[in-house]
Fold this sequence. Notes:
By secondary structure, the protein is α+β, with helices and mostly antiparallel strands. The chain contains five helices and 13 strands. The radius of gyration is 23 Å and the shape is elongated.
Amino acid sequence: MDCIKVGRLIQSLRKEKGMTQKELAHLMNISDKTISKWERGLGCPDVSLLGELSNILGVNIEKILSGDLNPNEQDGGNMKNVKFYACQSCGNVMTSTGVTSISCCGRVLEPLLPQSENDEHEITVHEIEEDYFVTIMHEMSRDHYISFVAYVSYDRVMLIKLYPEQLAEVRFPIMYGGTLYAYCNRHGLWKYEMKKLGSRRVI
């Protein structure tokens, strides 16, 4: 651990929050001399203080220890690079369009890897008026169900959350050239490219 880098990061984050050394020290119940020592690279925060420091500065502990936030490059706004995350403990669903670190219920989440369609996860899509009507022939019990369906185009993501004991049916406004995703709580994420067949659209 490079105390100089850690100190510079703490100082930068403290100033972003508009806090003085004394104000940060007060929140942590330590002396402002300790904060000054850290920021000058003359020592690093004790392990017992890292959790509180992380909460106050709004930065993960590992980033504080590395002394560098390493911001991502701009993604150009292309939503087709979207990644999905799902928490197995609480069912929380999150998305990102770039490299990120996401955690929920105390666990770090890995991006879901989309799989190709199979007979157990077959989707049918019909055009009804100005919408896609998406039907998934899938069990919807409390132990085995489709958790969400998402439609991704170049500049947007529309995600509909589903719950056990309801039908696995959703409607999306028509956006040609998109990609459908469906997440099964047992078997993971499934990806379906849209193909046009006459006046009807199927997957």
